[in-house]
Amino acid sequence: MQWPGAQVWDEAPPGVTIDNRYFDQTPLSTLSGIVTELGILPTVGIEAWLAAIRLHPALRAT
């Protein structure tokens, strides 16, 4: 999801493009683990873990 560039730099000079994304969409297959308050979790089974916790609506899989 793209957000307003002014949130990052409200007076960017001409020719500067701001790419303001709150979250990226990195495929789990490219990660070796995810750092959480529980420690480093392997990506195997992470989808089930994410489904079990409360997520912001923007983070839910569609």
- Give average pLDDT, whole number: 81
Count, helices: 1
Number of strands: 4
Low-confidence stretches: none
β-sheet strand percentage:
15-25%
Run of helices and strands: EEEEH
Biggest sheet, in brief?
Answer: 2 strands, antiparallel
Structural class: alpha+beta
Helix content: 10-25%
Global geometry: elongated
Distance between the first and last residues' Cα: 13 Å
The spatial strand order of the largest sheet comes to: 1-2
- Rg, Å, rounded: 16 Å
What does this protein look like?
There is one protein chain. Helices cover 11% and strands 16% of the residues. The protein has one helix at residues 46-52, and strands at 2-3, 20-21, 34-36, 39-41. The two termini are 13 Å apart. With 62 residues, the protein is α+β, with helices and mostly antiparallel strands. The model has no long low-confidence stretch (mean pLDDT 81). The chain has a domain at 24-62.
